Fold this sequence. Notes:
mainly alpha; rod-shaped
Amino acid sequence: MGILKDMFAALKGAGSEVGEAIIDANAVRILEQEIREAEKAINNARQSLTKLKGSEIRMKREINSLNTDISDYEAKALEALNQGNEELAVKVADRIAEHETDRDEKSAEYEKLSTEVRKINTMIKNRNKVIQKNKRELEKVKTIKELQKTTSSISCNFAATGSSAHRVSKALERVKAKQAKWRDNMEAGDWMVEEENTDDLSKELKEAGIGTRGITGNSVLDRLKEKQRPSA
């Protein structure tokens, strides 16, 4: 991958932490660019391979045509010999030799070209596998990056929510404290009013339990027992 190599070379003299930070921050974009360039190179190679394969097919067709001509001339040479026309048979034989020489040369070229086509085709297939693997790895990296962003966002939201909830809880505690203080002040106010409206004698009688006895279960029971007693 050329771009990535160039970036590493350019950042080699810089601090390693700074260089790594720059590369990490742009890793996805760099890999995407590298994959695009690799796919473009593969497409160009395929076009070249298509031309080579066309030449291979054409050469194979020419070889087959020469073999057909050779077979045809061999039949004619035999026919000339059968007729006793050796001079004509020699001419035909010369033509056969020319065709066989041409065929052998083309066959040698064909074998070389066919081998080259197979090699290039294998290289393209292997390179394409690497590109597809890199694309899958890139998708994984992008997915993980998005997950990291989402997780970070959720964490920030939770942190903000937790902080807000803490502030609200503290505010409620303050409100409750103020309300309790207000109730205490109200009770104190009621006590002051009662104190101001009660004279010292009433207080003493109240504290002694005189004149303040209310209706109780015992008092009701005593009253009922009194009613049961026969009259004198």
